Amino acid sequence: VTAILISLGLLGGGAATSIALTAKPRAALLVALAAVAVTAGILLITALSILVAAHTDQPVTYSWPMPLGVVRLAIDGLSAWFLGCVAVLSLAVAIYAWPYMLAEVEHGSLAAHGAFLCLLVASLVLVVTAADLVLFLASWEAMSLSAFLLVGFHHRQPEVRRGAWMYLIITHVGTAFFLVPMFGILGAHAHATSFAAFREAFEHCGPRTGALLFVLGLIGFGTKAGFMPMHIWLPVAHPAAPTPVSALLSGVVIKTGIYGILRLLSWLPPLPTGCGMAMLALGIVSGVLGVLYAIAQHDLKRLLAYHSVENIGIIALGIGMGMLGQATGQPVLATLGYCGAMLHVLNHALFKGLLFLAAGTVIHSTGTGEIDRLGGLARRMPVNAALFLIAAVSICGLPPFNGFVSEWILYGSLFGGAFGTAASAAGPAVLGAVSLALMGGLALACFAKVFGVVFLGEARDPSVHVHPTAGLMRVGMSILAASCIAIGMLPGLFVPLTRGGVHAVAHVPPASFSASLQGVIAPVAALSGLVLLLLVLVAGLAIARRRILRRNGCDLGRTRATWGCGYAASSPRVQYTASSFGWSLVESFRCLLWPARHATELVGCFPATGHLESHTPDMAEHDLFAPLARAGIVLCQSIRTVSWPWGSPRSVVVRVPGDRVGPMRELVTHLVGVLRRGSIHACLAFIVLTLLVVFFVGSFTSPRSSSSRPTVADAPRPSEVSK
Amino acid sequence: VSALRVITAIPEAMAIVALPPLLLSIITKTKAWFGGRDGPPWLQPYYDLHKLIRKGAVYSRTTTWIFRAGPIVNLAALLTATTLIPVLSNDSLFGFRGDVILVAYLFALGRMFTVLAAMDTGSSFEGMGASREVTFGTMSEPALFLCFAVLAIATRSIQVSDMVGSPLAGTWGSVGPAMILVAGALLIVLLTEACRVPVDDPTTHLELTMIHEVMVLDHSGPDFAFITYAAGLKFLLLGSILIHVVLPNRGWPIFVDLPLRVVELAALSVVVGVIESCMARLRLRRVPLLLAGATVLSALGVVLTLTRSLA
């Protein structure tokens, strides 16, 4: 805890010096970034020593005069884990930000930016170590505000202002309407403001109180984390922010939402099964829709922001399985679920941070983030391409990098739930496993698209010029890449570090942690051997090919043009674009995405110039929140008219794309159309879907009821006919 | 581990390494027989590999190291998966609990690098093939995992060699319909992943209709030999999972079982050859329906198995 206080002091000093040096922006930024980097180093060592020792510090109390309470700091395994995530990413970002922000010196105040960066890191540290309600809420607010100020760096651009305001409004709606009531209930029930008192007071609370608190916390913290319907600030705020800030936002700021949910679960007794299922459902929806929207994006940072939604969904799957494991009394599932979720929090901070930084380098050196204008960057910036590739393979969950380890543990919990003893958990667990597989496949498609279009092939737009990147940027990114590789290669070292956090949330004793972890899957160290085998095989094949080619007398330096299938007048413009690469998937899932496509029809032998435009507006934004906002405005206006009839009513317009047909209407039209066409596939699909729904409802309401069984036993016949 | 097992492992490993081209040859021969032709010699795929190994390679000037890494990573991933899957015998070399997920993700790793190598050439045809490959690969993934879920629920394990072990024989007795559905879904996944008709036609000559073949247009020499061998190996691996699901461990002595598995794999190749001879490739827009069908079949399998195991 002393280390925390030292680092808070350092950050405060950094921020103050930075403000004092406003006249010399470069020096101010340097001081601020150095403070962040040094603090991050101290915090990393602190967090690691606590995680390795797995002992829990007694909460340290300081009687600092605050209106409603005292300043209490405590670090347990859960805090230390999130502290570690904050520290690693801040270190990399601080190193990266120096050359990046220097180039932005004309666009805004670097001194203020540096100060807010210090403030953001300080409030992040306080959020994860606070052990008192008032301190937690105060630092939560400080975090939201400093993040808002950091996002608005390019505040002269209207879309940046829109992103920053949207973030501020949405995060405050979540805090005001859900978090404050939740903490109100907690505080009123416990007659205290300290987190330790919450735990004692709610150890034996009823399922209804628990569920109510959980739902409030899920929506409140979920707004920050970016679960699917509440995610709409992510794809707007991330592209608006300067790259180092985007990396911090996506890597750790949204993770504080996850931290909040886990912290809340640590106070409550095992919640009813329904809560775990709600969490799983939210995870499935966020994950699948997040990655589908990502495939449909054209902007690099917006695409990465939607991937954050996907990964938050994956983390939610783990938390959901952990809750189900607790509810059904299976510590194995709880351990696997929470451990997978926590490991994925760290992994996502690492590879998403790296992706944002690498994408920022691309935007920095080319001046555009539009995927379809880029191309062939791997030959211009090979190091950056390799770093981006490491992060892309990690985020797809592929071996030998870190994403695979956490997804593997999550699969362990999901499959363990599928053949576990609890009837009610089996169906959702299988559904979760399948959607995780689908997310993996879709993420692969998405990153094959991004990497293939941005870095491979030929440059698409000759007007895009590539400027060299600074070496320090590469240093910052290499820290993250090295961590990705280390966790992927040696998971046996890193996975046991989560035991303190799992103990805090699920009350699984640290001694039985490794035994529980190995209930379904083998020790994670087994992966290391296979990864080694894979690498040895790759190296062996590469050497073999080199020797074969040399023996055959082949000149390796000689290159030719790409085979154009007989077409000689090829140009870089005929390459496949990102939009066309992703279109077949977007088209297949159009009933979930509602993509819009406008094209001029080409007629005749010598058609005139045509154009094609496709975009995929966010359904939650335009069909859920826009009507809500409009209703709110109408309500406010009518209140104003009643209470203040003298002023002229000002009309506020909520922006909605003009030609948008509501998805429900389109869905119904589509369904009726399919049924009227009499397609046998569609009818069979409807039958099967109905059966599945009946089964899930049946298993949900009464696990042992025999009413759903005969229905299901009849099920294979129609599909056997269809074969 | 008995001494007999160690001794039989050597011919088994040699058979696994030697089999992939032969299975492709059996498919070609079956199709030739259906077409009333003699077809190429039985050992033609081996001759082709030998010829490719003795050639040089030509690389496009658009490409980077990714292009050269593609075939190598793909083959290495499949070879790693080979050590986890029970191919001929009923156990695997390095199996551990949870390896089924590693197998699926190793296939995905191979796909990722094949696709990236295709994108690296900057050719529009190869981009098109890559787009189709990831689309159909994504759609076959849920079906594959649902099949795995059925096996996992039935055998209470997520280790490949246990999932296709002797408890599965009992499952065929108790939830036979579910297992039939799983076998059907796995066959569709096999045809998709191994790029066979009705999803892809490996013998087509029009680039616009290809999927896998168009992605590897620019590879030559030893690289192309790796790719051809890897295609056969993928067919062998998925085929052996299917064979083991349909005919689980019978507990017969290993010197009877091993040759029998080779015969069964040959029979599977004949079945695939017959399918290829009897039907044309589906239109590209119909392929998602086929894969959705496989997903639905396996989902029903899960429902059946769950109701039976929970009752």
Put simply, the count of helices of chain B is 12
Poorly predicted segments of chain A? 702-723
Quick one: which chains have the greatest interface? Answer: A-B, 106 and 98 residues
Report on the biggest sheet of chain A. 2 strands, antiparallel
Strand content of chain A: under 5%
**Topology order of chain B in helix (H) and strand (E) letters:** HHEHHHHHHHHHH
Strand order of the largest sheet of chain A: 1-2
- Taking all residues together, what is the mean pLDDT of chain B? 92
Shape of chain A: globular
Secondary structure tally: strands of chain B: 1
Radius of gyration of chain B: 19 Å
Low-confidence stretches of chain B: none
- Assembly level: heterodimer
Compute the separation of the termini of chain B in Å. Answer: 37 Å
CA-to-CA gap between the ends of chain A? 65 Å
Question: What is the element layout, followed by pairings?
Answer:
The complex is a heterodimer of chains A (723) and B (311).
Chain A: H1 2-20, H2 25-53, E1 60-62, E2 71-73, H3 77-102, H4 110-129, H5 133-151, H6 158-190, H7 195-201, H8 207-225, H9 234-240, H10 243-253, H11 255-267, H12 273-295, H13 300-327, H14 331-366, H15 377-380, H16 382-395, H17 402-418, H18 423-454, H19 471-489, H20 491-494, H21 499-506, H22 513-517, H23 525-551, E3 559-560, H24 578-588, H25 590-593, E4 596-599, E5 612-615, H26 619-643, H27 663-677, H28 680-701, H29 708-713, H30 716-722
Antiparallel strand pairs in A: 1-2, 4-5
Helix pairs in contact in A: 1-2, 1-4, 2-3, 2-4, 3-4, 3-10, 3-14, 3-19, 3-21, 4-5, 5-6, 5-10, 6-7, 6-8, 6-9, 8-11, 9-10, 9-13, 10-14, 12-13, 12-18, 13-14, 13-17, 13-18, 14-16, 14-17, 14-19, 14-21, 16-18, 16-19, 17-18, 17-19
Chain B: H1 3-34, H2 44-53, E1 59-60, H3 65-82, H4 99-120, H5 124-155, H6 160-163, H7 167-174, H8 176-193, H9 212-215, H10 221-246, H11 254-278, H12 287-310
Helix pairs in contact in B: 1-10, 1-11, 2-10, 3-4, 3-10, 4-5, 5-8, 5-12, 7-8, 8-10, 8-12, 10-11
